[in-house]
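Figure 3 (text version): structure tokens given as input.
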């Protein structure tokens, strides 16, 4: 049954069907093996039940907050601050790219949005300063991986809804891994800048210029503290935090007269478009997940790990390998929805902390965004840099390797993930 479902999914994806339809057809194939009479009852129930979760309301709210930030000009303020901080160094625009991704991650949580927003501005500027187009595009796509790791994160919210893990703990756990990703990409840029003999971009900024940039970016910098602080200290739920952030960004945008009614409407339309696509995939994935659970696929999967079940590091490495390969060929939300219910019992049997597992799966799924042949961020980066996608596919692998290095470090040293949630007592 499982092989027939997998083959059906691959065939329908290759035929170009929308992903949620491919998933539903896959579910129909599965029901033909189990009990066709269940089809009319279970599919509607799981399709709508899979998205009828209060915590998932946070997803459109965080997407809207990010869109409003772009419309209100706050993203530009963050980029200005990044330029002041690191733009004067050798290879400064590369550092600006990474630092801007760190700032942008704190309010959006979308790697694709990060690639599009920052890439359209920074890639042309980097090319003018002597960066190769493939490196500029690769760094933009690679640093965008920070977006779903530093909170808020759509992937973490989905994982939390599937496993009943604390969203606050997951958000805290993502801070150090996200900053670590930024650090390794900055080291990579340091090496590239010296090898390519890039010029020093400008003078070290004065304290007055720094304070001016910091003051301008302060409203945007406060947004992550509203999001994470409210959840961690139990003041608001993730959904309420999303609503509060939307209201905050909207007020700031109206106050600085950057958020017009037309821009507000555009942000709402874009949010509806992205949310509907995500939720359709989630709903269809919920049907397939229920079917796999009913067929006891997770139990059968656990038995495959019996020889190494007492070695959590090996278990996580093997789960990561499976996730990495799956993410290369499957859309990220559906991969997360399908794999998490299967992986969770294995990880629990191996003694892996659910928060640790959540960050490992999230980073794995995120890396797939820059991995050929399906990596969405690579396609966006190729578009903004005017490169052939096949050319960028050839040069993206060093950035994939850097991200995988961080993933291995997080597996080998769980404290990098669990220290911050533990500092706040866990179960935030």
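Below: residues designed for each position.
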């Amino acid at each position: 049954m499982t092989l027939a479902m997998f083959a059906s999914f691959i065939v329908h994806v290759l035929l170009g069907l929308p992903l949620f339809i491919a998933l539903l057809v896959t579910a129909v194939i599965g029901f033909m093996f189990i009990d066709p009479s269940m089809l009319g009852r279970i599919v509607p129930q799981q399709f709508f039940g899979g998205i009828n979760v209060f915590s998932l309301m946070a997803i459109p709210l965080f997407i809207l907050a990010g869109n409003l930030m772009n419309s209100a000009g706050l993203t530009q303020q963050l980029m200005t601050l990044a330029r002041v901080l690191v733009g004067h160094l050798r290879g400064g625009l590369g550092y600006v790219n990474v630092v801007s991704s760190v700032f942008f991650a704190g309010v959006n949580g979308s790697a694709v949005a990060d690639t599009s927003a920052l890439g359209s501005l920074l890639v042309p500027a980097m090319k003018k300063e002597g960066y190769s187009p493939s490196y500029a595009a690769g760094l933009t796509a690679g640093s965008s991986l920070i977006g779903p790791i530093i909170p808020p994160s759509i992937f973490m919210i989905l994982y939390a809804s599937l496993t009943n893990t604390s969203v606050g703990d997951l958000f805290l756990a993502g801070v150090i891994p996200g900053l670590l990703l930024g650090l390794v990409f900055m080291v990579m840029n340091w090496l590239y800048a010296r090898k390519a003999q890039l010029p020093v971009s400008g003078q070290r900024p004065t304290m007055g210029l720094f304070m001016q940039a910091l003051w301008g970016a302060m409203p945007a910098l406060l947004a992550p503290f509203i999001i994470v602080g409210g959840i961690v200290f139990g003041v608001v739920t993730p959904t309420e935090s999303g609503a509060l952030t939307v209201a905050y960004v909207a007020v700031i945008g109206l106050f600085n007269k950057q958020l017009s009614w037309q821009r507000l409407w555009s942000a709402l339309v874009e949010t509806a478009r992205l949310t509907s696509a995500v939720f359709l995939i989630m709903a269809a994935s919920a049907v397939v997940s229920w079917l796999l659970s009913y067929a006891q696929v997770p139990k059968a999967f656990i038995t495959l790990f019996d020889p190494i079940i007492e070695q959590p590091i090996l278990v996580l490495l093997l789960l990561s390998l499976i996730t990495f390969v799956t993410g290369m060929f499957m859309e990220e939300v559906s991969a997360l929805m399908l794999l998490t219910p299967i992986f969770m019992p294995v990880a629990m049997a191996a003694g892996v902390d659910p928060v640790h597992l959540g960050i490992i799966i999230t980073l794995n799924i995120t890396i797939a965004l820059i991995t050929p042949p399906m990596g969405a961020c690579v396609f966006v980066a190729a578009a903004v840099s005017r490169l052939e996608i096949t050319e960028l596919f050839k040069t993206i692998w060093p950035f994939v390797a850097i991200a995988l290095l961080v993933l291995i470090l997080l597996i080998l040293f769980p404290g990098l993930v669990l220290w911050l949630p533990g500092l706040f007592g866990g179960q935030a």
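The chain has a mean pLDDT of 86.
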